[in-house]
Amino acid sequence: MIPVPSGVRVWLATGYTDMRRGFPGLSLQVQEVLRRDPLSGHLFCFRGRRGNLLKVIWHDGQGACLFTKRLERGRFIWPSPADGAVTISTAQLGYLLSGIDWRHPQKTWRPTRVG
């Protein structure tokens, strides 16, 4: 997991993004589409067309970071383009990176051993 400092917001770029882009191209998208500063220290997440690839850019104050995650099975749950820019909590980011539906995480019931 990315060590996210307190006070950092996590932004999801709705719709799909060309995953051939690196930090310069994605930071330009943050400026032009999301109307945010990519050097602000916030995390910006992008999903590819197929839905199984996610890129996260983050400027940690010392330099630019680009994280990539590909799911072997399933897709990342993503908001629709009509939602605009969406912000989520760092806990929801943990769910998202694990491939869990971050909008409605469910607690699983575990049976107790009677014995």
Number of helices: 2
Structural class: alpha+beta
Helix content: 10-25%
Strand content: 15-25%
CA-atom Rg in angstroms: 16 Å
The H/E string reads: EHEEEEH
- Total E-strand runs: 5
Overview of the structural elements:
The protein is an alpha+beta fold. The protein is built from 2 helices and 5 strands; from the N terminus they run E-H-E-E-E-E-H. It has a 5-stranded mixed β-sheet. It is globular. The model has no long low-confidence stretch (mean pLDDT 87).
In brief:
The chain is an alpha+beta fold. The protein is built from 2 helices and 5 strands, in the order βαββββα.
Structural descriptors:
single chain; about 120 residues; alpha+beta; 5 strands
How are the elements arranged and paired?
Layout: E1 10-12, H1 23-34, E2 43-47, E3 53-59, E4 64-70, E5 86-88, H2 90-97
Parallel strand pairs: 1-2
Antiparallel strand pairs: 1-5, 2-3, 3-4
